[in-house]
Amino acid sequence: MKALRVLIKGWVTSFRYPAFISGFQPTLPVPPLSTIYGLISAAKGELVTPEDLSIGYVFKHDGKAVDLETIYELSGLKGKSNVIKREFLVDPEIYLYLDDPEYKKYFEHPHYPILLGRSTDLMNITEIKEVELAKKANVKLGKTILPFGLNGAYGTIQALPTHFTDTIPRKAAGTKPFILMNQFFDYSNECCYDEEMDWGVWFHR
Amino acid sequence: MSKTIVGFMLVDAPHSALNNAGADAGERTDNIVRVKAIQKGKKKYPYVSGQALRYWWRDTLEQRFGWKMSPISREKKIAFTSANPIDYDDDDVFGYMRALKAKEGGTVTRVSPLKNSPLISVINQAPTQDFGVMARHEGNPVPYEHEFYSTVLKGIFSVDLDSLGVFYSTEKTGYKNMHQKLEEIAEERGLSHEKESKKWTMPHDVRTRRAQDVIKSLPYLQGGAKLTSHLTDVSPKFIVLAAIDGGNHIFMNIAKEEDREAIIDIEALKEVITEYDDSLLTDVYVGRRKGFMDELEEPLTKLAGENSKIHVGTIKETVDQFSDKIPELMKE
Fold this sequence. Notes:
Chain A has 205 residues and is mainly beta. Chain A contains 2 helices and 16 strands. In chain A, the strands form 5 sheets. In chain A, strands 4-7-1-8 form a 4-stranded antiparallel β-sheet. Chain A is globular, with a radius of gyration of 17 Å. Chain B has helices spanning 50-65, 89-94, 180-189, 204-216, 227-230, 266-275, 297-306, 315-323, 326-330, and strands spanning 3-16, 20-22, 32-35, 37-40, 43-48, 73-75, 78-80, 96-98, 108-110, 114-116, 119-121, 128-134, 142-160, 166-168, 192-194, 199-201, 238-245, 255-258, 261-264, 284-288, 310-313. In chain B, 42% of the residues are buried.
């Protein structure tokens, strides 16, 4: 199949664990789908959801560190400021695959500043390429999120939204359990394969 | 087309401790203050969080440019700004979030048009551990431990010119900047209004001034921890400025580590400028303070000689020349 591959790089990023509300905020090892649909929406300048296109990605980073951050915890009209420790990932890069090559124009001239994670996590679109993905069995697959129950995949299991609505307040939509697969494993069934990178690409449909 | 100012800067930090991480519960003594640092394998990279840099920036705009800062009201433990981007420059440029009662309009939010990365050390550098004493009182002095580093920090930022001075009252995430009272103020102040898109726009001169001040304040950037004992000048010593069509941060990869020194990769800079030629809305302005990375003088002069769209100067000249382009950019 024809796909668009976009390489996006940055210096730091952090993906919040939805369930944690204590003084320490760990980061997810790979971004959830909603973060990626958010990034694509920023590039296009309007809301993009899984109904518009399917995506897959491979995410890498170079290590972790912990920052000290002031946050404001709101509940209704009341809230309080607090200092928390937030974990973040260093030198993130993501190979993003889209099944609609038409999106090339949005990545060439993204509408809004491109961020991945927090508002200080500015990103650089480094490469945009149309690629032909073959179907292949026995490929290495991973460094991404995968649907719960996928044959041979392992990692932390976490319920995560696929995207958010643009209403006020925004609502998490399409929440499903995912496997946070932060390394590669040998996948024996057939899936999309990027020959140049020598890895499998899992499209979330 | 969307319009964004993109910038890159280097901050020289000799013997500095600009942003501290406090003490860790696992430390051997309870009065060590660590600097913030990223550990990558065996290597350590000191950094200043993005939040801290924004604080310095906001402070500089108030001190040197007389910005009208949104008054902060405090309710118990939480502090809010007024969330009024019409009267207060910082609410417009730095964004806000404020929970209002439903009858007052519900929660209003504004995404900051000014975005910045943390400042991260270009080279790996293990912070020096130092002793200090509190010795002003009578009796035994109280020792403590702290850290500092000597490095060059890199940072990038962007200013989304389309949203600066433009406010929406749309019921859509990230777009609900206005509430009823604010719309009344907007009406009173004569902001232009598009009914269909629920969009309010500040006058051209206000939007231009705010954008120009953000850029013009860079040479005066001040702040950082431990000023009394380290006194680091945090104003950028090297800067690249341009406006582009789109929100890509194209100058992220022009600094690198070579032989334990921070360097500017001239080839990478050249490549970015050529490859994004069709996206550039202005020329590219490169500024450097004399005495900092003097080895760049020759290749930069050469670069400017080869390409008439590249301008090289001092930090102040660069910032002023680029600011002069902003009024034109702010036009529809």
